[in-house]
């Protein structure tokens, strides 16, 4: 039996609750100072044939100070039709990703190494934005924070500095 326990070894933080994405949205902001890697797990219910732009952003604190786009490309995976397969396809590393326009349920995963943030200038927080799309397109996301510096029953909060 494995000794892995998700709540002790990973931190799961809601990024954005499921909602329509007509005007675009910004997720909550998480601090990466106590993690080795972060994943942004985005779920899309695309009810309209309009693409959705997804852009990870960095900030200097959880209030969003100095927010800017990542300077370095990051690994991205997506599944553009979850009704057919559970396979994530590796995409070209980039600082953002735009879905296709097919009316399908989709998943997109960004892998963020905190070392790729502008740490020299105090950027140790992460969030993402969705571009304007259509009210029939629903987005939802979580942050999965791994390789925690403090593996314990209740790891430190990632939503405070």
Describe this structure in words.
By secondary structure, this protein is an all-beta fold. It has one domain (17-146): Jelly Rolls, CATH 2.60.120. Helix content is 2%, strand content 43%. The chain contains one helix and eleven strands. The protein has one helix spanning 6-9; strands at residues 11-20, 30-31, 37-46, 53-59, 68-69, 74-79, 89-94, 97-98, 105-112, 125-130, 137-146. A six-stranded antiparallel β-sheet has the order 1-11-3-9-6-7. Strands 2, 4, 5, 8 and 10 form a five-stranded antiparallel β-sheet that branches. The radius of gyration is 16 Å and the shape is globular.
Features of the shown structure:
161 residues, mainly beta, Jelly Rolls, 1 helix
Give the oligomeric state: single chain
Q: Give the structural class.
A: mainly beta
Tally of DSSP β-strands: 11
N-to-C series of helices and strands? HEEEEEEEEEEE
Shape: globular
Provide the residue-averaged pLDDT: 91
User: Strand content of the residues, in percent?
Assistant: 35-45%
Topology summary:
Blueprint: H1 6-9, E1 11-20, E2 30-31, E3 37-46, E4 53-59, E5 68-69, E6 74-79, E7 89-94, E8 97-98, E9 105-112, E10 125-130, E11 137-146
Antiparallel strand pairs: 1-11, 2-10, 3-9, 3-11, 4-5, 4-8, 4-10, 6-7, 6-9
Summarize the structure.
This protein is mainly beta and 161 residues long. It has one helix at residues 6-9, and strands at residues 11-20, 30-31, 37-46, 53-59, 68-69, 74-79, 89-94, 97-98, 105-112, 125-130, 137-146.
């Amino acid at each position: 039996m494995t000794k892995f326990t998700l709540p002790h070894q990973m931190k799961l933080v809601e990024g954005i609750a499921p909602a329509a994405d007509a005007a675009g949205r910004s997720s909550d902001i998480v601090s990466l100072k106590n993690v080795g890697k972060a994943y942004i797990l985005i779920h899309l219910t695309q009810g309209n044939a309009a693409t959705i732009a997804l852009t990870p952003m960095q900030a200097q604190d959880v209030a969003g100070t100095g927010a800017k786009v990542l300077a370095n490309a990051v690994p991205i995976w997506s599944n553009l039709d979850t009704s057919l397969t559970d396979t994530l396809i590796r995409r070209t590393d980039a600082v953002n990703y735009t879905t296709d326009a097919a009316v399908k349920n989709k998943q997109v995963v960004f892998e963020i190494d905190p070392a790729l943030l502008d740490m020299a200038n105090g950027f140790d927080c992460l969030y993402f934005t969705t571009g304007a799309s259509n009210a029939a397109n629903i987005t939802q996301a979580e942050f999965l924070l791994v390789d925690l510096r403090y593996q314990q029953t209740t790891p430190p909060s990632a939503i405070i500095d």
